[in-house]
Protein 1
Amino acid sequence: TQLLEQSPQFLSIQEGENLTVYCNSSSVFSSLQWYRQEPGEGPVLLVTVVTGGEVKKLKRLTFQFGDARKDSSLHITAAQPGDTGLYLCAASMDSSYKLIFGSGTRLLVRP
Amino acid sequence: KAGVTQTPRYLIKTRGQQVTLSCSPISGHRSVSWYQQTPGQGLQFLFEYFSETQRNKGNFPGRFSGRQFSNSRSEMNVSTLELGDSALYLCASSLDRTFSYNEQFFGPGTRLTVL
């Protein structure tokens, strides 16, 4: 059973469209991070959210942490081909330095 | 500031052999974690080292081991390789500020293929 459920698994959209990716769990997290990974490379950290209800913006990307710190969403406005990649959410739980990763959302933005 | 570096980037081994992968963390980062990434299982935590001590361990067999040196550089070793060990092995370092703000920065990974 996946502790962190990401949806959708795959997303293929046209340039200029908006999209939202979800990361859900029944567990409460100390913090949650979003990464983007390109083929053959390691994940690149996009953002960390710590406080329930927190919203962070990174250019066209908006990240939200749920009030109960059990879920998060990533919204991309006016997607561009450069946004193509694997988006991963990862969470820290309890007093552990271990990161638990979601299964990922593979995004393809067509020109 | 230089990022996390991993060597080698690509490795081909045969079943039964052993392999050692190396990771140099970002300067000043004292915590190093290792992950295995496969298409079927995604990213799975292997272990984490801090000040030369293994602080956390994932659910992997004893064939997977690691260590950290006094300069925070880390190595992981896989003995008696199996076909299923083929994966991208990722190393990540963090400042170890607090577990509630565990930002990890990843290297490019080592692609291991077991034939």
Note: The longest strand of chain A covers residues 85-92.
Protein 2
Amino acid sequence: ETGVTQTPRHLVMGMTNKKSLKCEQHLGHNAMYWYKQSAKKPLELMFVYNFKEQTENNSVPSRFSPECPNSSHLFLHLHTLQPEDSALYLCASSLQLNTGNTEAFFGQGTRLTVV
Amino acid sequence: AQSVAQPEDQVNVAEGNPLTVKCTYSVSGNPYLFWYVQYPNRGLQFLLKYITGDNLVKGSYGFEAEFNKSQTSFHLKKPSALVSDSALYFCAVRDRNSGAGSYQLTFGKGTKLSVIP
């Protein structure tokens, strides 16, 4: 266990559904991240939060909407997704931004399938 | 811009033999370098990192990696492979001189390691 917990582990949703992914960490970290992992592609950084403030949005479509109510929780709200959005979504946390020598801790991921 | 290349999609090695998983990087400044491992249906687990100092870094589960600045490489190694080492391995880089963007880790595509009994 890395200390980062993601729920649900698996999610199947239709293109018209609305769902949310949840990430929780109690490591005392202040930076949290969403990554998308697709087969045979590098991990794609989607969003970054530092002390609850969004600092990065890597040109992610608006059908993905992040929320960070506090430093321990991160959500990814999903609506009107496309089949190509099917992937493993990984949450990660680290001590804080601008401490470049610290590693990130990853959750186990949510396997999302859009039908 | 920073980038990572893992030239091998798959590496096969017999149990008990030494293993190497290759990684080369490109940054404008000096790098922080990381290796992560991913087991099936799991997230990434941190293995080791190079920050500064000794070029040979030792990490979890008997893995080590050697930083070579002239070759811009950070290959992962283990003297004797175990079947349980079979997994997907990711190399990642962060440019320590990139200022506001210094938090962004860039990952390679991953190398699948299969250790054959």
Note: Chain A touches chain B through 28 residues (CB under 8 Å).
Protein 3
Amino acid sequence: GESVGLHLPTLSVQEGDNSIINCAYSNSASDYFIWYKQESGKGPQFIIDIRSNMDKRQGQRVTVLLNKTVKHLSLQIAATQPGDSAVYFCAETDSANTGNQFYFGTGTSLTVIP
Amino acid sequence: GAVVSQHPSRVICKSGTSVKIECRSLDFQATTMFWYRQFPKQSLMLMATSNEGSKATYEQGVEKDKFLINHASLTLSTLTVTSAHPEDSSFYICSARDYRDTEAFFGQGTRLTVV
């Protein structure tokens, strides 16, 4: 596989502050990336995606930044809310690969303090 | 977004028995489905990729005879954990992809406990 996570970093933020979650990917051929949110006992939920021909994409309260030079993604959450508490994963895929598999990064556990 | 239904959500089985997990795409045709395994506080690890009507492609280190995958139709893939052992206890998650779409949609996961 690609990036394999054995540890789960944690991030705690105060409600209302901005959160930044980082992800390093390993496959330089990856050209499509997705950020997922996973709540306890549930499957991943799509948040936002970005293609490699972009370096920034904005959604509602979320922004994804892509730095292909250093193979780094970040997810910025504005005005973080208690409902944002979850584990966040980045996933990468090489869409030119016929399998189109998504490989997941390590993940970050976000805790929002009321 | 599209809906992927996974069943059962929880299952407890005795060591040595087999367990089947179903993954259905409810409102789209999934030409490709993926099976992941997730241990507590860890990331999702891709086990295999299945394409409708053909054999699944397994990731390195995943035993294909132990984790049988059948993608018999464009809306259904099944994962059978054969001769389950306690170390197979994990959270199994399926994902489905429409050939027209680049996004992958995930099921709600199955918590397997082998006792």
Note: Residues 34 and 42 of chain B are 18 Å apart (CA to CA).
Protein 4
Amino acid sequence: DTEVTQTPKHLVMGMTNKKSLKCEQHMGHRAMYWYKQKAKKPPELMFVYSYEKLSINESVPSRFSPECPNSSLLNLHLHALQPEDSALYLCASSQAPGQPYGYTFGSGTRLTVV
Amino acid sequence: SQQGEEDPQALSIQEGENATMNCSYKTSINNLQWYRQNSGRGLVHLILIRSNEREKHSGRLRVTLDTSKKSSSLLITASRAADTASYFCAADPGKLTFGQGTILTVHP
């Protein structure tokens, strides 16, 4: 298995809702990442998990809450989002943090906040 | 924060022509990577060049790196319509941060 699987592919949520994005990989990668991408812009790093521990939080608002239950799974819990949070959320993994390997990206969750 | 600029922002060529994209970055790096993205979906890793390398090839791809100028270039030779996509460079100083990207359109 050489893929990163993200679910759901599309999500529409209200500003008072609570939802979660899920990401899964079975490549034995020990680093996992969340990126946010607005239309016609590059991906922006949100969080980095290294060996299942949060190692980098790029000053992301607390309405985004990451979780790494085990080495294969990464969640992003969403609560009280704003319309400007609408974006493509990308999960990625790499073999090990700080090592010269390419990242494997999932196909993303397109989130719309109404 | 984003690493830097990519040049050009958009490139339109005919099938069979070569496409060259340039990237500048701001910080010291461990390596620099190039990715392709089709239609706003997931990114696909194309090639990685380490900071102590100057040039690397992979199939129709050629990447150069000039750490003194903090710049890199991606050359796609003999382009195909299927190469139409957005291309991003990504600098890795410990965490991967992306340039602004080049939108490549290859006309059949």
Note: Chain A is about 0% helix and 55% strand.
